[in-house]
Design goal:
By secondary structure, this protein is of the alpha/beta class. Helices cover about 55% and strands about 15% of the residues. The protein is built from ten helices and seven strands. A seven-stranded parallel β-sheet has the order 3-2-1-4-5-6-7, sandwiched between helices. The model has no long low-confidence stretch (mean pLDDT about 90).
Length: about 280
């Protein structure tokens, strides 16, 4: 796919990968419709994209709100006339809680945004992608859409589901003959605020945050979330241009993808051992 003169929609564009991919697409000649739950963050991204010469409209959007996403899609099509690319990027994490502790509030919230947002965006924009005659649907999963990790049931469930949903849509586009390429993206450790924001959200809601949860976030930020979002954005944009159905971002994601294929039965045990080794020093 040639990106020049395409109209791209990016959700969760106010920071992290969303902002980086918005700017990368702007630099490659796309017009942009960007959104974020935080309107000022979306506006800031729009300012940077406009400096690169792109036509940009920015909106506040809660991707978990089906009606709001449907109306947003109508507005975008009215503004640009067509939509060629949809990047369902918006997502959140939360504090690490074992399933046995039963934190359904956080679980449901993560599923509503990470999976529900992808589903809402796809349903709202896919007809426009098909009608464009040259479309691309790109859904952001995660390394945790390849391997499961203790304490991250909601995040892993949502990202595995994004992977499965995306693969269904890809197969349907092939069967229908629609000229829409469909890709799922599995980023590894990218230097975003996703881990910190989950902790901050819990604190803002005056919920107890344990020492183990704080240590986990510090470990993620210091050891794992290392790739520059700009580099991740270049890999994703290159993947869109080359029509790759699976876009693996980072050596860590590639390594875990290979392990999951070679020794799938061992992965839960390996991930459990890694969890103990990395986080056993913190007290709950």
């Amino acid at each position: 796919m040639e990106l020049v003169n395409k109209v791209a929609v990016v959700t969760g564009a106010g920071s992290g990968i969303g902002r980086a991919i918005s700017l990368e697409l702007a630099d490659r000649g796309c017009a942009l419709a960007i959104s974020d739950i935080n309107e000022s963050s979306a506006t800031e991204t729009a300012r940077h994209a406009e400096a690169l010469g792109a036509k940009v409209v920015a909106h506040e959007l809660n991707v978990a709100d089906r009606d709001a996403v449907t109306e947003y899609a109508r507005q975008v099509v009215d503004t640009f006339g067509e939509v060629n690319i949809l990047i369902n990027n918006a997502g959140i994490s939360c504090t690490a809680d074992p399933v046995a502790e039963g934190n359904r509030t956080d679980f449901d919230r993560v599923m509503d945004i990470n999976l529900g947002g992808v589903v809402n965006g796809t349903f709202a924009f896919l007809p426009s992608l098909i009608e464009s005659g040259d479309g691309a649907l790109v859904n952001i999963s995660s390394l945790n859409g390849i391997v499961a990790q203790p304490g991250m049931s909601s995040y892993c469930a949502s990202k595995f589901a994004v992977r499965g949903f995306t693969e269904v849509v890809r197969a349907e586009m092939i069967v229908s003959g629609a000229n829409v390429q469909v890709a799922v993206v599995h980023p590894g450790g990218v230097a975003t605020n996703i881990a910190t924001s989950g902790l901050e959200r819990a604190q803002a809601e005056t919920r107890e945050v344990t020492a183990a949860q704080r240590a986990r976030v510090r470990m993620y930020n210091e050891k794992f979330l290392r790739m520059d979002p700009k580099k991740a954005a270049r890999i994703i944009a290159d993947g869109i241009e080359s029509g790759r159905p699976r876009i693996i971002v980072g050596n860590d994601a590639r390594a875990f993808d290979a392990l999951a294929r070679m020794v799938p039965k061992l992965m839960p045990k390996l991930m459990g051992k890694a969890e103990k080794r990395m986080f056993s020093g913190a007290q709950r």
